[in-house]
Design a protein that fits this description.
Distance between the termini of chain A: 36 Å
Number of helices of chain A: 16
Oligomer: homodimer
Largest sheet of chain A: 8 strands, mixed
Number of domains of chain A: 2
Structural class of chain A: alpha/beta
Strand content of chain A: 15-25%
CATH superfamily of the largest domain in chain A: Metal-dependent hydrolases
CATH class of the largest domain in chain A: Alpha Beta
Largest interface: A-B, 60 and 60 residues
CATH topology of the largest domain in chain A: TIM Barrel
Chain lengths: 425, 425
């Protein structure tokens, strides 16, 4: 299949785009992309590819931008219930950490998740996944973490694998048993750390071998390193135990307080360090000297009505690899749209549209270790791409609150997104 | 047709909702709405309406919220071209007023609009209108103002009437010849004021009688009262001339500087005063003692990456009638989604979800003088309503960046909005 006549094809080839090199889109004007089965086989000008492949079935992308599918490298996609009432409470002045300390926040979602069957969890999560895909996310990371007990955490893993199998959107799964101290261990958090290290992690490793034998890599293991969650020492203990078992690592660092999580990520060669709002200059320097991807989640301060965002410019000056994600979750940021994350990154983190695009494609692919097959339009990569109903790439960032995707192509299959409506009666 | 079994029907009956009374949704749990032709004929519980109308064709709204169609009372919907490049310039540090002073901003859109044919203007605007409708806006105000010369301003009026006729979304038209000083009059702005008062306004009045004889009311006349646009005296001159001709009035007041536009609106009994970011306590008091609707446009500071929003709480304390709008325009806020405006109003203006909903329905209808037929679900009103795929109203505000509408019903006709995707190949 030949997608041709695109106003712009954004290739994003090469990468990761480090520091100030972020934003190289590799634009081909009047571009074309040739797909065969599930792969990209050629990328070039429309003239050149139409000449070379005259009889190919075609998709006319005139007036549109063609780019790699968006990659969302940090989501808490699966949960039971909602926190709409808590949202109202926050508008009345309670802080997120106050609510967490009072047994609300994450713990209220944990209650709703523990009591939900796997069928119910899948049914509640499916519309979110569908909404993500319609907004152009072709691959997303998805974490467990609203179980905080062995059986529920495994149920969440199982549900995520089922959703991955049924949906065109691909999931990169993360085990986040260390999302909060389980309520049963409130007065003895160290016991919960022990449970994670000595029971949960070995069990997940075994379970994965049995339930996901066709997935060559273990899931990521992540820790919420924060006051009222896991301190630096506990985070280190958990991540070291995970590393010893062969899990690739992620960390929630410096969302509300600087505990040193970002430098811990570098020390342990984590794949990514995420949030990074209160990160110190020293930590930023360490990230810049590492291959740990710095994942900014601007939807979270936005969702909380806060003014402080990840210091993206400092991270780029320090030569870090910057990626964007939604953080989609029921407490602070219920949004499925990477496009919105990009619009925020431009306005509140000072990225250009080109930088936001690179941070949401090739660099985001690096943040989940899939850059070998997704994140750019290059021969041999998976045919995951978007046709946007915009005449040039800067409309991403410039426009906000709506969905600019016209068609999503996933593993070579074309899905149309209806931006409009149809009359039914 | 009977829409039944809704988790919540939000009636918004009565109104306008003044001051601290804002946010009375008139909720009916397990509610139903009966439609006949283009009107609402009954609103009540599902049990009661199913008993009374057992043979009615039905729409099952189980698990959903049913509410009045959203009303967007301030948009610059029609324009040529885009300002994506200028957006990048702003990210590099130039202010909106700097760009305006340098001949960019509104004037660059004026150039693109003047050179576009009416067919091209309609074709460029149609997708925006469609996107608004898909996001639940069933009636929108739409301004001219990118012509700034008689012929182009009339072409914009004509295009807006054509779009109103072809689209299920209804438009309330506003003449905004006073959007900026036309470039030809840069060195002699008073001459442009004279042109508006002595030529444009009388001509628009005549033109309207010929081209829109079935529309009983004249369009609104609006002025951008701001430094580098029209000062207070010029604004007054234009609005008084318009009032003498029978036009209902609107004003852009206090977006960047306080020039006194809000109190002028009150003095002239304008239908609304819009923006109101830099409004003084004295002006707020005057608004609170008037029937002039205070229209907040939170997408504009958001779009500009600014932190100061309309002081909604002060306006409510002063007993003002508060409404929300998108301000959809190519310079500062290209968004078609009233849902996003509501999400911002909760986080950045301190409204509760219920207040944001009332400000986007019944109060917004008052801001365009259509509350007699839209803005609430009451017998006798037009059948403009939404079915949202959410279990309770607070999801509006709580969730952001996506579209929560499942079906739009306009004048009794049902349109489905596709939140997902469908496989085409």
């Amino acid at each position: 299949m030949l997608i041709h006549s695109a106003a712009q094809v954004l290739t994003l080839k090469g990468g990761p785009q480090r520091g100030k090199d972020l934003g190289d889109l590799g634009i081909i004007e009047n571009g074309a992309v040739l797909l065969r089965e599930e792969k990209i086989t050629a990328v070039g000008s429309t003239a050149e590819l139409q000449d070379a492949f005259p009889d190919e079935p075609d998709v006319d992308a005139a007036g549109c931008v063609v780019m790699p599918g968006l990659v969302d490298p940090h989501t808490h996609l699966i949960w039971g219930g909602d926190r709409a009432a808590e949202f109202e409470t926050r508008l009345e002045g309670k802080s997120y950490l106050d609510i967490l300390a009072a047994g609300g926040g994450i713990i209220s979602t944990v209650r709703a998740t523990r009591t939900a069957s796997i069928e119910s969890l899948i049914a509640q999560t499916r519309p979110r996944l569908l909404r993500m895909f319609a907004h152009g996310t072709t691959t997303a990371e998805a974490k467990t973490g609203y179980g905080l007990q062995t059986a529920t955490e495994l149920r969440l893993l199982k549900a995520l694998l089922a959703l991955d199998d049924e949906s065109p959107l691909e999931l990169a799964v993360t085990f986040l048993g260390a999302h909060a101290i389980a309520p049963e261990y409130k007065d003895n958090p160290q016991e919960y750390v022990k449970l994670i290290c000595e029971t949960m992690l070995p069990l997940v490793q075994l379970w994965w071998g049995v339930h996901a034998p066709h997935r060559k890599n273990l899931p990521f293991v992540d820790v919420f390193c924060e006051n009222n969650a896991f301190n630096l020492e506990q985070s280190k203990e958990i991540l070291e135990a995970a590393k010893a078992l062969g899990f690739p690592l992620k960390i929630h660092a410096d969302e509300f307080e600087n505990l040193g999580g970002a430098s811990l990520a570098v020390e342990l060669e984590a794949v990514s360090a995420d949030h990074l709002v209160k990160t110190s200059d020293e930590d930023i320097k360490n990230l810049g000297n590492s291959d740990t991807v710095a994942v900014a989640l601007p939807c979270t301060p936005f969702g909380l009505g806060e003014c402080e965002y990840t210091p993206a410019k400092k991270l780029l000056e320090a030569n870090a690899i910057l990626a964007l994600a939604t953080d989609c979750n029921p407490g602070t940021a219920w949004t499925e749209s990477m496009q919105f994350s990009m619009a925020l990154a431009c306005r509140n983190m000072g990225l250009t549209p080109a930088q936001a695009i690179a941070a949401s494609t090739i660099n985001a692919a690096h943040a989940i270790r899939r850059a070998d097959r997704i994140g750019s339009l290059e021969p041999g990569k998976q045919a995951d791409l978007l046709i946007l109903s915009v005449p040039e790439y800067r409309h991403l960032g410039y426009r906000f609150g709506t969905n600019l995707v016209k068609q999503v192509i996933k593993r070579g299959r074309v899905y149309s997104v209806d931006v409009g409506y149809y009359r039914t009666a």
